[in-house]
Amino acid sequence: MTVGSHVARSRFPPVERTLRLATGLTLFSFAASHFLNHACGIFRLEAMEAVRFVLLWPWRTTVGQAALYGSFVIHGGLGLYAIYRRRHLRIPPGEFLQLLLGLSIPLLVIIHATNVRLGNLLFGLEVAYPPILHRYWDLSPHFGLPRQFILLLVVWIHGCIGLNSWLRMRRWYQKWFPALAALATLVPVLAIIGIADAGRDFDARAAQDQGFLARNEVQTPQQTAALGAIGERLILIYLGLVGAVFALQGAREWHERRFRAVTVRYPKGVEAIVPRGFSILEASRWAGVPHISMCGGRGRCSTCRVLVTSGLERLPSPNVAEMNTLAWIGAYKTVRLACQVRPRESVDVVPLLSPRSFDPKRGAPTFAASDEREIAALFVDLRDSTRLADGRLPYDALYVIDRYVAAVCHAVEAHGGQVTSVAGDGVMCFFGADCDAPTACRRAILALRMIWRALAALNEECETAFDFPLRFGAGCHLGLAVVGELASRHTAQFLGEVGNIAARLEGLTKELACTVILSRAVIERAGFAMPTPENHRVQIRNVSAEIEMIALRTQSELDDLISTLG
């Protein structure tokens, strides 16, 4: 990395991100209170009405309505601006789903808001559950009611995706995620059940009280026609606005591609010729160049960082989001965030964190649902992983952990092993589900060699980019275990003290200042010669016999062991 001045951090947060978050939280709070009110229909109409005055009262005040409608306009406007700013829609599926949900919400909201809010403002129609239920439950059960259910689900899913993106790296959120996920699932389900129960209660009351229906009639046919015409115009205006955004985007792309193309050059002669205004990350995706971006291109991590080798002086200055992120990681001025910088002239870049690909199509070997077998258990753990989060962006720490776990799992699966659990940075796996014990032991040791080499290569990147030396420890042992498949999870698993011994051997690597510990049983059954140096005996708790083992400190020692196979 070229040495230069560090990037200074701004004291002010990005305005656009702050506005999107504030308005999104406002809209989600309204939706949550609204849906909880719906859920009270489980306790009949009176409960819905009584709770409505409490839950929805803040949104009926002048301040509440200004916050609600202002948030709706600003949040929607920022969404359209984000679409206009995008240079193409070659984006990950999760981002595309969020985009589609956001665009569909106004279409669904306009009709409901026109009937309820404008009906109240223009014709003085009562805003209460009985007439609204009558409109959807009795007068439009095949169109209006399903549309309301779809609106409820779309709004809730869109909001939950946004909240998860904002909170997912916070420790308290990770701890409470199962409970929060259950709550997030329960709210819309209870809201739909509440509407259905309230609708049945409405029908029962109408059947018993002849005047009940007359007291809760909705608008007259003339009012319905007037509100419907207003709703149709608003929908056409919205569709025209969305169409104009895409049309302007297309016209801009055509003009810039025709007259103002920019070339982004990558290593090994790869080029992306894109219109001016593309970010480097968008250029990479457009040209099919692998480019990691853990936060989805929002400037909240540094995994898309690039080293600018030519054209740095012609790049625009970092915005606030990029400036703060680069300052957080202590980057030099030659390093930029690919998702934020939009070159106006041709530029040469080197992605500093490139995704490693592995074969995801490799299937798991088949074996009996429950069988006692002799297996080789392997436990791999990352050293000093708690220090990884200190002073680093959460997404960057997640990137390192993800790359480490992927390297270990790929090596295990490439040699016919099964990964049974990944607990943070500890990976437990085994070999022998589809082979005999000698083959299982050889596969385990060969997988260890592949893991060592892969993590050594990854360490070079981690030390350069994150100032974190990536070190690991591993323990491997051979023993009997019950091997099977968990029916509830459809994953391979084994039960037996062999896994406990492998984990204890890994723990001993810290005491012996080594990297890998192999038990004598694994080495001999694999057909390797038992080395004489670093030969130890250890008594492991809850295991009656002592375990004879060898400690390996370097890759060359493991290579020498493998070379002894006859």
From TrEMBL:
SMART domains: CYCc (SM00044). The keyword Transmembrane applies. Keywords: Cell membrane, Membrane, Transmembrane, Transmembrane helix. PROSITE patterns: 2FE2S_FER_2 (PS51085), GUANYLATE_CYCLASE_2 (PS50125). Residues 376-506 form the Guanylate cyclase domain. CDD domains: CHD, fer2. SUPFAM superfamilies: 2Fe-2S ferredoxin-like, Fumarate reductase respiratory complex transmembrane subunits, Nucleotide cyclase. Residues 260-357 form the 2Fe-2S ferredoxin-type domain. It is a multi-pass membrane protein. It is found in: Cell membrane. The chain crosses the membrane at residues 21-45, 65-84, 96-114, 149-167, 176-196. It comes from the Bacteria. This is Adenylate/guanylate cyclase domain-containing protein. It comes from Methylocapsa polymorpha. The lineage of its organism: Bacteria, Pseudomonadati, Pseudomonadota, Alphaproteobacteria, Hyphomicrobiales.
